[in-house]
Specification:
It is a single chain. It is built from 7 helices and 10 strands. The protein is an alpha/beta fold.
Length: 316
């Protein structure tokens, strides 16, 4: 597993979604920062084999197995009744030992999920089929995550959970932030950290949160933030002298945005150096996490935009 993960994850790439791969590590690591707390309760498959999965632990709990009634017009989960209604009362998701509390150990998970390709087709098919059921029972984007874990449980898979695959919320526990906390503060924004084997980092940055630098942006005196919702659409516009192979983009009504682009059409990138004093002392750990995530997300967004231009912008 270690050799496989090194080959598969040792590419520092940007993504078009809301997660970027930062660096690889070994799933065979046993130190406490790799899996801590509740994540130690599930055995790690060695090697990864059919019918097994590794996933990041999230705080979504075992809600689909709750016995509580539905709220705010939502249906009650009642998984046993649901699977019985579709002719599958013996679904592994209805195992006698699964309830809201016990399911938390296996199914309080989220992306990234790691499984063999042979398992992903039935998982994805089941996931898609369960989405209408999940949406009727849980409004919002968590419905997608709940449909995923029910799909996995229905196939009899009980994932191993780890804490260090991902970081997202700087105030969250159960994520890979201990790696970031041990970084030298003066190197919080140093891009060479991604290639420095002396410092371990999480696998993925799931940039679903807002991150803030301690410095001011180059365009005004506001706080220098990164939020995927605030990245200007124009970052994907083709530069002068080229045209978009995907066709002309519809013009959107101008919105008030906190983030702005440089003249070259990319996000202004922060300096590799940062005032270490601002990342120590009271609230220093939170600031360190913010700055590290801000810098990583900003640079990876620009990398993805440059890749887009190289692939889809053709010279006139």
């Amino acid at each position: 597993m270690s050799r496989w993960s090194r080959r598969a994850y040792d590419r520092r790439v940007g993504g078009a979604g809301s997660a970027v791969t930062l660096r690889h590590d070994s799933f065979d690591a046993d130190d406490a920062t790799f899996a801590s707390g509740a994540a130690k309760k599930t055995p790690m498959p060695r090697p990864l084999r059919p019918g097994t999965m590794i996933a990041q632990r999230y705080g979504i709990g075992g809600k689909p197995w709750t016995s509580a009634p539905g709220r705010n017009g939502q249906l009650a989960w009642k998984l046993r009744d649901y699977f019985t209604s579709i002719g599958r009362p013996d679904s592994p998701a209805n195992a006698p030992d699964l309830n809201e509390r016990s399911a938390d150990a296996f199914y309080s998970i989220g992306a990234p999920y790691v499984a063999l390709a042979s398992d992903w087709l039935p998982i994805a098919t089941n996931w898609t089929g369960l989405m209408p059921m999940a949406v009727a029972r849980n409004f919002g984007n968590l419905a997608e995550m709940y449909a995923m874990v029910i799909a996995v449980a229905d196939l009899g898979i009980r994932p191993a959970t780890v804490d260090s695959l991902m970081v997202s919320n700087v105030g969250a526990g159960g994520e890979g932030w201990p790696f970031v906390d041990r970084l030298p503060p003066e190197r919080a924004c140093d891009p060479t950290l991604l290639d420095d084997e002396a410092h371990r980092l999480p696998f993925f940055l799931h940039y679903c949160q807002r991150y803030e630098h301690v410095e001011k942006p180059p365009y005004d005196e506001s706080n220098w933030i990164y939020s995927k919702y605030q990245v200007p659409d124009e970052i994907l516009h083709c530069p002068a002298g080229t045209h978009d192979l995907e066709g002309e983009r519809p013009k959107k009504k101008a919105a008030r945005q906190r983030m702005r682009l440089d003249a070259d059409g990319f996000l202004p990138e922060p300096s590799a150096t940062v005032d270490a004093a601002a990342l120590t002392g009271t609230s220093g750990r939170a600031r360190l996490r913010h700055v590290w995530a801000f810098c990583a997300a900003t640079r990876r967004t620009n990398l993805a935009a440059r890749d887009y231009r190289r692939w889809f912008c053709a010279k006139n």
